[in-house]
Design goal:
- The complex is a heterodimer.
- By secondary structure, chain A is mainly alpha-helical.
- Chain A folds into two domains: 142 residues, Cytochrome Bc1 Complex, Chain D, domain 2 (Orthogonal Bundle); 77 residues, Cytochrome c-like domain (Cytochrome Bc1 Complex, Chain D, domain 2, Orthogonal Bundle), CATH 1.10.760.
- Chain A has eleven helices and two strands; from the N terminus they run αββαααααααααα.
- In chain A, α3 packs across α4.
- In chain B, the strands form four sheets. In chain B, strands 6, 7, 8, 10 and 12 form a five-stranded antiparallel β-sheet that branches. Chain B has a four-stranded antiparallel β-sheet with strand order 11-9-13-14, with no helix packed on it.
- Chain B is an alpha+beta fold.
- Chain B folds into three domains: 192 residues, no CATH class; 95 residues, no CATH class; 124 residues, Immunoglobulin-like.
- Classes of the chains: A mainly alpha, B alpha+beta.
- Chains A and B meet through loops of A and β7 of B.
Amino acid sequence: MTDHNKRVDEATGTNLVGHEWDGIEELDTPLPRWWVYIFAATVVFAAGYVVAYPSFPDVGGTTGWSSRGELDDALKAQTAARAPVVSAIAATPIEQLAANPGLMRSAIEGGRAAFKVNCVQCHGSGAAGSKGYPNLNDDDWLWGGDIAAIQYTLQHGIRSPGSEEARFSQMPAFADILSRGQINAIVSHVRAISGQGKPSATGAQLFAENCASCHGPEGKGMREQGAPNLTDGIWLYGGDRASLTQTIAKARYGVMPHWAGRLDDATVKMLAAYVHSLGGGEANPAPAAPVTADAATGEANVGS
Amino acid sequence: MSALDLINPTSGLYRKREPVFPRVVKGRFRQLKWAVMLLCLAVYYITPWIRWDRGAYAPDQAVLVDLANRRFFMFDIEIWPQEFYYVAGLLIMAGIGLFLVTSAVGRAWCGYACPQTVWTDLFQHVERWIDGDRNAQLKLNNAPWSAAKLGRRLTKWSIWLVIAMATGGAWIFYFADAPTLAGQFLSGDAPFVAYSTVGVLTATTFIFGGFMREQVCIYMCPWPRIQTAMLDEKSLIVTYRDWRGEPRTQGVKKAAAAGEKVGDCIDCNACVSVCPTGVDIRQGPQLGCINCALCIDACDEVMGKLNRPRGLIDYLNLDDEKHERAGGAARPILKTLLRPRTLIYFAIWASIGLAMLFTLGERARLTIDSAQDRNPVVVTMSDGQVRNGWTIKLRNMESRPRSVELTMAGLPQGRMWTDAMDRKDAARSVRLNLAADATTRLHLYVAAPAGPAGETPFALVARPLDAPLNNASGTNDGREAARDIKFIRQ
């Protein structure tokens, strides 16, 4: 073998490794030295890497690095970067947010992000709602559409169990109170006042006796009770006969959770700003006005 | 010969640089080179300092690439990012311009205007000033290191470095207000990118101009190689009339007395010694030759002393060279310059330029864009009407605040309002004030009575309420901007 190793290929001047297959021989062309050195260096590097970084299940590296820790750091950095704006929003009374356009813009964008996490499950990603879940883009508000009223709704919820200050009202199920025919007559009346059908004298009479206390004598609703306006073009549960019959007979009991305690004040404010910005937000009530939408004062605000 | 020698010729892909010490030369092409160098350097250094009054709302620098605000200013022309095709057009013109120049006068770009040539030339002049002419430089180069040699080298490098820093320094002024940036730069308040840019450009200028020189042309630059495809037998190149010069001999009188045939070339090597890239033009056209014509000057000087006609080395295309070799009379140079190929290149180049000028004069300075709300598309309002929404972008590209009326063409029952308004103030049009040289973004709502599902096309029209501005570019003609959109009912 040693003799073979010393043999040199005449054509190229390269050593032969000594293997021969049917007269074909292999030239001894070793890997380039730089390649071998780099390869060795990577092996050394890998050994160090295994020690320094987590390489086995449940065993951390000496550097203490972890991908989750990196994410936490990134989130902390984000929170810290946002902190000045968030604390400024937290410190600003919600009615005065609009006076600072830059802050308002930040609040709306922050609310847009928070909405995607907390609200889209019911209200939809475009806040367009669905049956039983109000469309937040329109100008119809059950409990008030100025930014402070929206904030109150977000904080305390609607009929939310566990929230003392939740907006609360309960429509009776009239199936136990009225006959089928009477309910039918009220349905006819409600369809008449919303421009969908012929008037019914019996229905009007029954409406005045049973419904007007909350929905108002003209059916224009009452925000203190969260009683919807029955004369407008928007129906939360549908405005057709079947839906209306169902609503009157069995009543509705829509629940929105309260967010105070689950989201911080600034986030609730940002959500209120976002919802208010969707195109149906109402102006802040003038302080001197006798009528206010703030449920806490208990004054009437009929119609819209 | 072994097989390896065949696949790996001894010359290799790179040859170690042999220093070039070009001798100083006088003559018409040297004069031209001086003039072009002066012009190029003047344009490069002075341009960012030219002021241009654009009023209160735009910078007053004549040429400014404002990357931070994404604006490009060039005298009366202001380009926004979406108009970047003008820059693309300029680049295409530059490309075709190089085709034109190359097919007509060969590597004139390489020989006179290329920054590598201009700065190398400048550096070589500094070199001659410090070290003396070719012979002194050679001697110094071969001398062992001594205090005197080190002193000269350090002096030369320092001057190069100053030139290099000035070169890099001038570049950044194209990207910010020059006087402000100059002050910031000196006081250390300039942004980091300014210092790093100057650093990189200083390093490249110093290395390329001082040490790499012709190696940049031979090994790094793609242009000499592209020219191989661009040049034809009608392109002007620097040519040695070998039929006249050969056989070259140094002892002309002795050879003539011996009855030998002698050519005009006395093999004095003047053409080689003045060459900034160190080639011997007598070997024919080659990659290293940048066609700077300094060898023509050198040879003309020698021919003058010998009372021989000038032009042993000359600008001459290969076709004419063949013609003259066969005994034909010299042809006028215009025939080389004006021929179908160059004229077609010129026509293409000029029509792109004219088309750009035309569109530049016609382009709108007020534009409107819209994106319709998609989630939800349609919102039913409490009064039964339906509402659509759009995000509107109004671009006011003039350097003054403008007042426009946004109106609807079509959709007669529609009423519009913006996110800054209340719906009770909705109308057929809204008045908007647009900030100068800026994009105004707003949310627009349009409500119309409900109806059968479908799309109703209409147009949003932004109509200027202010008087048109008349300035030199003639672009601000008070035209309205319109956008066709659809009102959707479901």
